[in-house]
Amino acid sequence: MLVGLILKLSYPSRPCLFPPRFAVYFASLFLLGPGLLVNGILKPLIDRPRPRHVLEFGGAKDFLPVWTMGGEFYDDRSFVSGEAAVVVCLIPLALFVPAVWRRCVFVLLSIFAAGISLNRIAFGAHFLSDVLIAAGLMGMLSIGLWYLIYARPGGQSCEIKLDAELSRIGFALQRQRGTAVRGVRGGFAQALSTLPPISASLKPKVRRSASRPSEA
């Protein structure tokens, strides 16, 4: 989705690779969910060790319940599951396929998300609560973004306005880039014009050897 937005800003006269609201929806979902909420806020704040690190499963750390803050500080934390958050964010793709395929795609994506989450639990990387809370948070975020971007009245006009706004930003960036390139070229040409000319003494001299008369 980010590549599609970057291409639109780089070539503003061309249509978007993806529908603008579709790109903004999923880019916002992944950046705000797994990016900001999970790895930017919850992971640094909640000091819950992974199951394989707690005493009950052969580790060296004490078990901590969910939402425990201010405990021991270490890098490898369990709450919440980042992998579960990422795969759950794929489930809203079912809303964008034709209606006859939505139930099938929703079931397949849900099975895939459940399989990835259970795999993380089986290998001792997360507790069940880590996975369920991550899925719930991503579900609420996806519903909230869906309401803001799609469900409000006048959503179709927002599609056109968003495309026009992206084109406007792209043209503005093109003008700024052109101004910067012209400035660099002008400065380079001015720097070359201030260089001293090449001295004539530095030019290679061609020596002509006089031909000797042939001896009899």
Q: Care to describe what's here?
A:
The chain is mainly alpha-helical and 216 residues long. It is 60% helix and 0% strand. The chain contains six helices and no strands. It has helices spanning 2-10, 20-45, 82-88, 99-122, 128-151, 155-193. The radius of gyration is 31 Å and the shape is flat. The mean pLDDT is 83.
Q: What are the key terms here?
A:
216 residues, mainly alpha, 6 helices
Poorly predicted ranges (pLDDT <50, ≥5 residues)? Answer: none
Fraction of residues in helix: 55-70%
Figure out the total of helices: 6
Instruction: Classify the secondary structure makeup into a structural class.
Output: mainly alpha
| Strand residue content | under 5%
Number of strands: 0
- Which series of helices and strands comes N to C? HHHHHH
First-to-last CA distance: 91 Å
Largest sheet: none
Rg on CA atoms, Å: 31 Å
Which geometry do the CA atoms define? Answer: flat
Overall average residue pLDDT: 83
